[in-house]
Amino acid sequence: MTKKTSLKNAKQVDQKAGEYFEQCDENKKPYAISGLAMALGLSRKELLTRQHEGAIGKAIKRALAQCELSAEERLLNGKNVSGVIFSLKSNWGWTDKPEPEIREKESQPLKIELSLKPSSVDYSETEVGHE
User: Fold this and answer.
1) Helices 10-26 and 54-77 meet at what angle, rounded to 10?
2) Ranges of each domain in the chain
3) In sequence order, what are the residues at sequence separation of 6 or more whose Cβ sits closer than 8 angstroms to the Cβ of residue 98?
4) DSSP secondary structure of 81-130
5) Under a CB-based contact definition with an 8 Å cutoff, are residues 24 and 60 in contact?
6) DSSP, res 40
7) Which DSSP category does 4 fall into?
8) What is the pLDDT of residues 84-99, one digit of tens each?
């Protein structure tokens, strides 16, 4: 279990996240949300919850975006990508195919109104050929 963090500001989040990313790069390890959370002294759940907290939340979102970018690059450059695909789907809402968005108004019956106006053309003197 992760102990309660003493994150005081966004600069501290940026610094700790940067140290985590450097350590991953040095050890040739992928960036992971759980690893980022541990580096910040948070649980994974706390990390995802705190991303909505003002300036600290914005710094957390930047770090999470770096993790997502890393996963996307591994997807494009990797040999065994099934784990990366799972991570992208689970953590960032990626899907295999676009899903159409259905809006409430679109699900209502479609009402079409037509206004027919009489034609101004006089067809009474038009010759129609009969054989």
Assistant:
1) 20
2) 10-96
3) none
4) -HHHHHHHHHHH---SS------TGGGSPP---------S---TT-----
5) no
6) T
7) P
8) 777 778 776 777 776 6
pLDDT digits (tens, 9 = 90+) for 55-114: 999 999 999 999 988 888 887 777 777 777 777 787 767 777 766 666 665 566 667 776
Least confident segment among 1-10, 21-30, 37-46, 69-78:
1-10
Both structure tokens of 112: 């079409």
DSSP state of 9: S
- Side chain identity at residue 11, one-letter code: K
Where do runs of H (alpha helix) occur along 3-108? Answer: 10-26, 33-39, 44-50, 54-77, 82-92
pTM of the model: 0.63
Rounded to an integer, what distance in angstroms lies between the CA atom of residue 64 and that of residue 90? Answer: 13
